[in-house]
Each structure stands twice: as C-alpha cells, then as structure tokens.
Design a protein that fits this description.
The complex is a heterodimer.
Chain A: H1 5-28, E1 52-57, H2 62-78, E2 81-86, H3 90-99, E3 105-108, H4 111-115, H5 123-126, H6 135-141, E4 142-143, E5 146-147, E6 150-156, E7 159-162, H7 164-170, H8 178-190, H9 208-221, H10 224-232, H11 240-253, H12 262-268, H13 271-279, E8 287-289, H14 294-301, E9 312-315, E10 322-331, H15 336-345, H16 348-357, H17 374-384, E11 389-391, H18 393-396, H19 401-413, H20 418-434
Parallel strand pairs in A: 1-2, 1-3, 10-11
Antiparallel strand pairs in A: 3-10, 4-5, 6-10, 7-8, 7-9
Helix pairs in contact in A: 2-15, 2-16, 9-11, 13-14, 19-20
Chain B: H1 2-6, H2 16-42, H3 68-75, H4 83-91, H5 94-120, H6 126-134, H7 141-151, H8 163-170, H9 184-210, H10 214-222, H11 227-255, H12 259-264, H13 274-284, H14 288-319
Helix pairs in contact in B: 3-14, 5-9, 5-11, 5-13, 6-9, 9-11, 10-11, 11-14, 13-14
The chains are: A alpha/beta, B mainly alpha.
Chain lengths: ~425, ~325
C-alpha cells in the first residue's frame, strides 16, 4: 500500500496544476476585441488592448519623463503597453540588431538610418504623415530612395550664447552679419577682453564642439549645399573651403587672446565648463557657440539667471541654413502598435503635444504654435525660418569618419599640420563612401 | 589492514576523465572557443560581416586582398612619406604607445614593487605599509581614472581644481595641460597604471621573499655580506622565477590595457593604445572587420606571454 502512494501524489499534483494553469489561461482565451479606432489624430487601427511595444532610446531622467508624457495620450487611448529601455550605449542596440532581436522601435541618431537601412521598415508603409515636415527633413531621412526614419526631436546647434548684461556693460551689440561678428571679436581683443570660450573636452568624443563650429563657419562661408555635398562625398574634406574654415577657427581656438587659455584651454576644458565661463560672476569670456542645451547647463549651475537678461542667444550671423542634432524614430518591426505610434507622432496632435511638453524642438511643423517658453519660441522661429537644415557632418558619414574628424580637430588645435590632418580625414571620408 | 585489501580495485574506463572534463569543455567552447573562431572569421570580412574584406579595397589604394583589415590595422596609423615620418607616426600610434606602456609600466610596477617588498620586510608596521600600497588595487579602473582625471585637471580660471596644477600655480608656475600635451600625456596615464598595479606586484614578491629560508640570509651575514649584496646576490636570484611570473602577468595586463586610457583621454591627443583603438573601430565606427582584426593582432601579441606563464607554472608544479 505504502508504495502506491507516490503515483497518487504525482497524479494529484498534476491535476491541481492543470486546474491552476487552466484558470490562468482562461481570461486570456477569448480573443480581444480590437480597440476602436479613435477619431481625430490618434489612430489605433488594428491595435489590441494589451499589445506591447518595445522601445530603446538614449534619454533618461527628465528627458525620459518628457517622452513618457508625450506618449501618454496615445498609449492610454490605444491601450498599448510600452516597454521602454534606456541606454546611451550604442553597442547594446548594435548587439540586439545583430542578434535579430531588435526593439520594435528605437529613437536614435541619424547615422543609424544608413547603418540599419536593410533592417528598417519604410515610414510610408507605417503611415507617417509627410505633410507635417519641411522638405529637408525628408531628404535627410531618405536613404537609397526609402524614407526610413521619422524625425521626432531637433536641437539647433547654430547658436551663439551670450550675456546681454555683460554685453551692455561693455557697450557691445549683437552682430547681425558675419563681418560684424568678426569686427566684434577683434574689438573685444583690442579692448583686452577674451571673446570666446571654446572648450571641447568630452571624453572619447572630445572635439565635437570644434567640428560643430567648423560646420557653422561652412554654413556662413559656403552654405548648406556645400555641407550636404561633403556628407554625400561629392566634396572631399580636404577641399579649400574646409581648409579656410579650419583656419578661421584655428585663429580663435589656439590663441589665448581670442579664447580662454588658448589651445590648451580649448583642449582641456569640458564643453559644459566652457558654457559656464561666459556666465560666471567674473565672466572669463563673452560668447560661447553651443547647441540649444546650453541654457539647461547654465541654469543647472546658476539657477537664478534670467532669460533675456542674464543669458540669451543669437543664430550664428550670416549662416545660410542651420546645423542641428536630431533624433529619429526607426522601426524594426511592422506591427499595428508601431503603425499607430508613427501616425500619432507625425500627426498634428503629436507635434503640438511634443511642443507643449517642450522636449527640445519638434521637426513636426504643427508644433510651432504650441511652445510655452519664450526661449523655445525663439529657437523654433529660427528652425521654422531656416532655408536648410544640415545634420552633423561627422554623425552623417558612417564608418570611421566621425572619430577621424574628432581626432583631426584636436590634433589641429594641438599644433598638428592642417594639410596632413585634412588629408587623413578626407581618406576616412572616401573610405566611408566606398563601403 | 584486512579491510583495506578487501576494497574493490578502482577501475576506470578510458572515457571517464573526459566525462569529468565535459562541463568545463562545454563552457569553454561556448564562451571562449566559439567567440574566438568567430572573431577570426569576422576579421577577414567587411564592416558588417556580409562579404569578404577584399571587397572593401579601393582603387588606387594599397590592398592586401582578404587581409585588407589587417593592412588597415597595421599600417593606417603610419605616415610613410619618409623614414623619419614613418618612425615618428609609429611611435605615436597605438602600437608605439603600447610599447611605451610596456617599457615604463612593467619596469615601474615590478621595480617599485620589489623595492617596497624588500624595504617593508624589515619594518615594524609591515601590514599597514603594505595595505596602503595595495589599496589602489581595490578601486576599479574606471574609478581610478576619474580620480586621476581630477588630479590632472587643467583649470583655465584663477582657481585650480586639479591638485597637481594647484601646487604648480601655488609655487608661481604656469599650469600644465597634463592630459593633452604630447608625449607627456601618455606618461601621465602610465603613472596611474603604476599606482594601481604596484601593490599587486609587491604582494607576490613579498611572499616570495618571505619564503627564503632565514638560514641562508644569516649565513651570508656571517660571511660579511652587505644589505645590498644580500638583496642582489641572494634574494633576487632565489625569487627570480616569481619575478618572471610577475613580469609576464604585468605584460599581459598592459597589452590589454583599456580602462585608464578610455576614461581619462578617450584615446585622444595621441594616447590611443591597441585596446582602445579596437573599441573605437568596433563600436564608435561600427567597423567589425577592422575591430576584430585589431583584436586578433592583440591576441597574437599576448599568446607568447601566456605560453611563458603556463610553462613556468607547470615547471613549478612539477617541482613540488
């Protein structure tokens, strides 16, 4: 008798677990009714309540919270559960894509459009609304004739930050042309004052503030067409126009009369510290050329500074077109949830929502009227009035170009031979074009 | 005794040892052998492993066919205009920098470690002194890099936050940009490496010195040997095998060194070493072929030292 007990026990356990499993499975058994397509700008066609959408992006903290707030109306209306992951490590994304387990969508940089071009789903297929975007956005997002990415966030880099109070005290006025800027810089030097704060230290990406500046100079001296041709490989990086831009930059970046602590200051000062030097109690310089995020950095250290009084910005005078960073939505899978997300973000409501929350600027033109802060309105005005928008040259050319450009400009400021440096960068450019 | 002989004789079939080895072999195959084979395979292919590396050759440029990634890895940093520029560019390339690291850091850590091991052998608070030297080993490389980045900080304002420049400016000199001045910067990074690893070398060498029988030292003293003679003619020769093991271990450590350079300069200002260059090609540039080719070259550099280490180890085991 005793020996018979064990099989009975096993049977009982099996029965109980079968019951439990059955109970678990039951609620899920009847197929969910598709959520009704919501009228207006949120289109949930085909999405079932409880659908999940995996997402990988580089934002964290406050930025992540802003994105969540922007997506909230859509995910609530469609009943989609977003499973987000945040990482600045591109190796993570690369590994996932290589392994064949990419997230449904990712928000990443413009380079990845060409890097993953064979794996991305066409935006037209997903139902993106192209009418809400200026023509240059389509050009940047189109690789080999396919529209592969939706620009969601833009940051204007062609800005010079200054302190109106300091300018007023010294009797300087904001320049409106490149010649005026050049004259202002010389006047400051003649007055024994340091015009620029050009620090470029940024870990393994050291050099990017320098190459940003070069690109802005190119937008002034040559225009956006020229920059686009460099990106396309039609103009080699060692062209005379580029060389002239480096010489203008070098004159400022290497000389302690023009920038804080000269070449060594440019190389060793962190890009954030460089911003602060213009707004400190005893300012060390009058101007810093930096992207839109500069106000966030300076308010982080000097929370009492007031926009328009203590700090303000102007577009690089004489620049024909803008330079900017942009984040792009890329889709690796074509699911109803992905489609409805793409439709939402490219819709009027999506653009307005993005601007209202104020997550930098939205390339979606319907957002232009919805910004809250005067600072964002001024930036958006610059973006809306731009005749061209060029992505960062270094970010747009894949392969080793970006790092060659960074180490090139640091070597140049460190006293290297300009011709040889530009030849090396041009070789990396040609190399990237051949692949 | 009778019971002992009654025990059954242990008989093993041929396959049994292999059975014991199997779990280890499986783990080794999955995590070491397969990735290694894959790495070598990728190093002969293009940037994303979809075609042979030979397809990446450009017209009018030198080309090594399927070895193209190796051509890039070995020669791209060189400026072959003249013998002088070739030499100069080699010396500031990642390979040249790794040689600097090898020469200075290995001699530095082993030399200072040995001196400390001998000196603290005689003092009262030996454990305390050793603990202080060993302490940096407990800090992660990244942490150490961040700490030293502050030490070397180059301020442009009146106030210097970096202690080194604060001292220098306090004495009335101009501040120095430690991390961007070539070739000073590589040596400043090596100092961090020495600071971290001296404790490791000291501990191993110290225990070797302690294993020298006291009689030998005493006998030499009676014979009239000076302290220095004891050190150079008795202690060092006896612990020579340990010194060699420490040297080879350090050589391997230095060859694969990555963290300090990556954290402190990101390989900028001519401080790249082989491992940071590999990372840049692999992840920043998404050039898997080139990145893996550099990895393979690095492995080839390291293998002889691993072989030396293992040989020495088996020899020591045989002596026991």
């Amino acid at each position: 008798m005793k020996q018979n007990r064990i099989p009975w026990t096993i049977l009982a356990v099996l029965l109980v677990s079968a019951l439990v499993l059955g109970a678990c499975a039951q609620p899920a058994a009847p197929t969910q009714e598709p959520a009704a397509p919501v009228a207006g700008d949120i289109d949930c066609t085909g999405v079932k309540t409880g659908d999940t959408l995996s997402m990988l992006y580089q934002w964290s903290g406050e930025e992540e919270a802003k994105l969540t707030a922007i997506l909230a109306p859509w995910s609530a209306a469609c009943g989609v559960t977003v499973t987000p992951e945040s990482s600045r490590d591109q190796a993570l994304l690369d590994t996932r894509v290589q392994a064949g387990t990419p997230p449904d969508v990712t928000f990443w940089n413009v380079t990845q459009l060409s890097q993953y071009k064979d794996k991305l789903v066409d935006m037209t297929t997903l139902g993106a609304n192209a009418a809400n975007y200026a023509g240059y956005w389509g050009e940047i997002g189109t690789i080999d004739g396919r529209w592969l990415g939706l620009p969601v966030k833009a940051d204007v880099k062609t800005l010079i930050w200054y302190s109106p109070a300091n300018f007023q005290a010294a009797g300087y006025t904001v320049p409106t042309t490149w010649e005026e800027l050049d004259a202002l810089v010389e006047k400051m030097v003649a007055d024994g004052k340091v015009p620029w704060s050009l620090g470029m230290e940024s870990g393994d990406a050291t050099g990017w503030t320098g190459t940003d500046f070069i690109q802005d100079i190119l937008l002034v001296t040559q225009g956006p067409e020229y920059v686009s041709k460099i990106i396309a490989g039609e103009i080699p990086y060692n062209d005379a126009g580029v060389k002239a831009a480096y010489e203008i930059y070098g004159k400022w970046a290497k000389d302690p009369k023009y920038t804080v602590a000269g070449a060594e200051g440019t190389l060793s000062t962190g890009f954030n510290d460089a911003i602060l030097k213009v707004f400190s109690d005893v300012p060390e310089a009058f101007m810093v050329k930096q992207s839109g995020f500069a106000s966030g950095t300076l308010l982080g250290t000097y929370p009492d500074k007031v926009y328009g009084v203590d700090y303000d910005f102007f577009g690089v005078p004489g620049a024909k077109g803008l330079q900017g960073g942009s984040d792009w939505l890329m889709a690796f899978n074509d699911t109803p949830a992905v489609r409805s997300l793409v439709k939402y973000l490219s819709s009027n409501k999506g653009g307005e929502m993005w601007a209202q929350i104020g997550f930098d600027l939205t390339p979606n033109a319907t957002g232009n009227a919805a910004y809250a802060s005067p600072e964002a309105i001024k930036k958006a005005g610059l973006l809306a009035g731009a005749t061209g928008f060029t992505p960062d040259i270094g970010d747009s050319i894949p392969g080793g170009f970006g790092s060659a450009e960074f180490s090139g400009i640091t070597d140049f400021v460190n006293g290297g031979d300009l011709t040889a440096i530009l030849d090396t960068i041009a070789a990396a450019q040609a190399d990237a074009m051949a692949q | 005794m009778a019971r002992a002989t009654a025990l059954p004789v242990m008989k093993q079939k041929m396959g049994v040892p292999w059975l014991y080895l199997l779990p280890a072999l499986i783990v080794m195959t999955i995590f070491i052998v397969y990735p290694m084979v894959n790495t070598v395979g990728l190093s002969f292919q293009n940037n994303d492993g979809t075609a042979s590396a030979a397809t990446t050759c450009r017209e009018g440029e030198p080309c090594w066919g399927v070895m193209e990634n190796y051509r890039y890895a070995l020669t791209n940093e060189l400026n072959t205009e003249s013998v002088q520029t070739t030499w100069q560019s080699f010396w500031t390339s990642s390979y040249g920098n790794n040689i600097k690291w090898l020469l200075v850091m290995v001699t530095g850590t082993v030399g200072i470690g040995l001196i400390f091991a001998v000196l603290v052998d005689r003092i009262k608070r030996e454990a305390l002194a050793k603990a202080i030297i060993f302490m940096p080993m407990a800090i992660s490389f990244v942490g150490a890099g961040v700490i030293w980045k502050f030490v070397y900080n180059y301020g442009t304002s009146q106030v210097q936050t970096g202690i080194l420049n604060a001292i220098i400016t306090g004495l009335g000199f101009e501040p120095v940009a430690w991390l961007s001045k070539v070739p000073l910067n590589t040596f400043m990074l090596i100092v961090v490496g020495i600071w971290m690893w001296t404790g490791f070398c000291m501990t191993l060498l110290s225990s070797a010195i302690k294993s020298i029988p006291e009689e030998i030292i005493e006998a030499s003293r009676i014979d009239g040997a000076t302290n220095f003679e004891i050190f150079s003619k008795i202690q060092v020769p006896i612990i020579a095998p340990t010194i060699i093991v420490v040297i080879t271990t350090m050589v391997i450590n230095v060859l694969k060194l990555f963290d300090i350079v990556y954290v402190m300069t990101g390989g900028n200002f001519g401080t790249n070493v082989i491992a940071t260059r590999m990372y840049t090609e692999m992840y920043t540039n998404a050039q898997y072929g080139r990145g893996t080719a550099i990895a393979v070259i690095l492995i080839l550099f390291i293998i002889p030292f691993i072989v030396m280490n293992i040989r020495r180890f088996t020899k020591q085991e045989a002596m026991r």
